[in-house]
Amino acid sequence: MNRPVLTRSRAAVAALLAIVLTAFGLATAPPASAEAGTVSEGSISWGVRASFASYVRGPIAHGEIETSGVTESDGAFHFAGGSGTVDSDFGSTDVATAGSVRFTGHDGQLDLTIANLGVRITEGQAFLIADMTSKALGASEAVYTPDVAIAEIDLDAVTFGEESVTASGAATTLTAEGAEAFAGFYPAGDSMDPVTFVLPFVLDEPTDEPTDEPTDEPTDEPTDEPTDEPTDEPTDEPTDEPTDEPTDEPTDEPTDEPTDEPTDEPTDEPTDGLQVDEGVLTWGVKESFISYIQGPIAHGSIETSGGVTFDGSVFEWSEGAGVADEEDQTALVAFPGEIRFTGHGGLLDLTISDVRVRVDGTDAGAIVATIVSKSLQSGQYETFTGVDLAELTLDSPAISLDALNAGAGPGARSPIVVVLKAPVGSTGALTISGAAAVLTEEGAQAFAGFYEPGTALDAVSVTAQVEAVADPAEPTEPTTPTVPTTPAPTPTDNTDDDPQSSAGAEEPAAAPVCTANAVSAATLTWGLKSSFRSYIAGGIANGSWDTSGGVSDVSGGWQWSAGSGSINLDSSTGTISYGGTLHFTGHDGVLDLTLSNVVLRLTGPTSATLYADVTSNDMEGNESSYPGTAFATVSFPAPSADGGSLDVTGASVTLTSAGAAGFAGFYEAGTALDPISFHLPIGSDVECSAAAGTLAETGAGTEIAGALAAAGAMVLLGSVLLVRRRAAQR
User: Fold this and answer.
1) Exposed end of the chain (fewer CB within 10 Å): N or C?
2) 472 C-beta neighbours (distance < 10 Å), count
3) Residues 599, 593 contacting (CB under 8 angstroms)
4) What does the H/E/C string look like for 22-83?
5) CB–CB of 26/217 below 8 Å?
6) pLDDT level of residue 315 (50, 70, 90 thresholds)
7) Looking at residue 116, what is its pLDDT?
8) Is 17 exposed, middle or buried (0-12, 13-18, 19+ CB in 10 A)?
9) Cβ-count burial 681-693 (b if 16+ within 10 Å, e if not)
């Protein structure tokens, strides 16, 4: 059980006991907690926010960071001398350190001090506490606010030990109180730097002295000493009636009647292992790779078959089955189905199949898969059977079993009980939630060299049912797959979910019938990010923006007009291009950001991706260009095309990692941008391939498509360079 949950339960029991004792007149002064202690020489290391520190010291803010009683190294500020209290019984602590960090910039307009940083844990929540002095933007004086809960700490990363309370790299999130004290630089809910702390404590000694005052109330407990006077009352007479309780002694007479009824209790025989069924694997592989495949450069497609589904960003495997061992915390679960990625007119062709999740203990595991990929150098297919594609990092036991549920059947659950030798019929679960995944060396080779070993992939989650059986069936060994014999599909958005990939196919499948419709006079309304607009127009940046070529100012942002392209209404996929430019400047030209040629690519009934040509300066004023960048992802409820148009209002927008780079590091990948709305009038029929963005009228990617058609013998070399350059950018 998680320690904070356990301590809250203890607190509840203690409170209930106090109520009962009071009701019977037996309440006494509460004793000191057996696990209460005093903290001394505590230390806290926190970088606040790396991007903020870089901004303060950069050429825009022209600021500095001063420390007093605090040291700085490895991107973190180290506060020492922490003192306070801790109570391990109740999972609480209140500790403050000494020293301060002061951030100044913009000739004094930016002024922020964090002093006496501390850790407070109470009632199942953990916070970084500090005394804050900050100047609001445009204010003339700084305001002092003591004891601010500046950031919430991930409590799951906190450990209450026998002699210290610790956390290593615990995630922190800016609170509403912290955002206000931070002068509005970041909104509440933003991720701050991780925190590490060590809070050593010594348990307080209990007092052995009894109280001097006797209590007026008699106790119900008998005294140990006998009384001198005899009692007047006789003792109770023994009864002749037999007791209902069974005796401990065995009877001498055997029973004559055998039991005919079978018992419902599980057998006592230990199992050889656990059977895993109904497994579900959720994994996006790698977000930037998915965006790249579906974007205007690769002009690719993603096909799933055999039970794998795809919602535009995440894949889901189902019907996983395998074996597990709770004692060793090991498991191997196989998932049917495959994914095929294609692009660049077939030069990029990669299939992932026979995916397995392997658990190697409480802290490690792997994604095992069979991969067939086309070499970017030779153009030949290479097969990698059953390789460790990614290493997984687990943070808790993945396999749990509840012996009390033996024979109760699936669906019955109660608190986890650790059972080393489980009887047949015991049930439980295998659960992996958001495990970090890193590409292995074998995986990098199988991935056709798109990424280097050690590259972070998307997080992995698994759920499955577990049952103890006498003879669990292990997954069969992976077989060598056949190399695709059908050409890579053209990037239409209505491809069959079952690609013809088996060897020996006599003739290719007939091209699917597809209907697409032209889109013209489309509009798109978006504010990019309201805090960025305020910053540009404010007294620090002293900046402005200008629009041209079909982009105009509207309330809360801008509107792009005259968009054109096409859409496949059956699959809700398509591409609409908008001309025009949006240009921001500030800080006397050091800040310079341009978005042009915006493209809205619909990737499904509820998802889309925004592409744009982005040019921006970094903090040193160096200009970089990011053409055709997958700038942000868009999600929304499924719309209908009633009234001759498809309309979406207030769709959620999230900055991608490529967009963050194009944004010159102002915001991190995953940052929520302003909602977006678009109006797409539906016109006459056009060629279906237009809905995938491959025809000239779609705008984005025309030059690349033409090059692929005309370059002849140079196609392979050009595509290799293109793919590797994009991989390096990602």
Assistant:
1) N
2) 19
3) no
4) HHCCCCCCCCCCCCEEEEEEEEEEECCCHHHHHHHHCCCCCCEEEEECEEEECCEEEEEEEE
5) yes
6) very high
7) 94
8) exposed
9) bbbeebebbbbbb
**Cα 79 to Cα 68: distance, rounded to the nearest angstrom:** 10
**pLDDT tens-place string over residues 490-548:** 444 333 333 333 333 344 444 445 567 889 999 999 999 988 888 888 877 888 999 99
pLDDT in tens, 145-192: 889 999 999 999 999 988 899 999 999 999 999 888 887 678 888 899
Tokens of 434: 């958001």
Task: Report the SS3 class of residue 504.
Answer: coil
What is the Cα–Cα distance from 466 to 401, expressed in whole angstroms? Answer: 8
> What are phi and psi for residue 93, nearest 5 degrees?
-160, 150
Return the number of other C-beta atoms located less than 10 Å from residue 270's C-beta.
13
Higher pLDDT, 701 or 625: 625
pLDDT at 655 exceeding the cut of 80: yes
End-to-end CA distance of the chain: 40
pLDDT for position 106? 81
DSSP string, 325-372: ETTTTEEEEEEEEEEEEEEGGGTEEEEEEEEEEEEESSSEEEEEEEEE
DSSP state of 284: -
> Tens of pLDDT along 547-561?
999 899 999 899 999
Task: Give CA–CA dist 379/292, Å, rounded.
Answer: 20
The answer to whether 709 touches 719, Cβ cutoff 8 Å, is: no
**In the chain, how long is the greatest CA-to-CA distance?**
118
Q: How many residues in total does the chain contain?
A: 730
Give me the mean pLDDT over the 18-43 stretch: 61
